[in-house]
Amino acid sequence: MSLKEITASPTYNPNRVLDAIIEKLQLKNDAALSRALEVAPPVISKIRHNTLPIGATILIRMHEISDFSIRELREMMAS
Fold this sequence. Notes:
Layout: H1 3-8, H2 14-25, H3 30-37, H4 41-48, H5 56-66, H6 70-78
Organism: Duganella radicis
Protein name: XRE family transcriptional regulator
């Protein structure tokens, strides 16, 4: 399943991925997550509110900082 298909799916929920990374890295909040991912805080907010999909670049960065596999991250988004 492609990233585009996942984000178009009615079961797509980026909050699962964001929350899993926050938990795994023991971060306090979305601001700490944005610093860890090296993105501006509004990017996390837009992803949480489904106005910005998780793109390939941020997905790779999530993988790098969390050690979740790309497959695991994609499954979290789609389940």
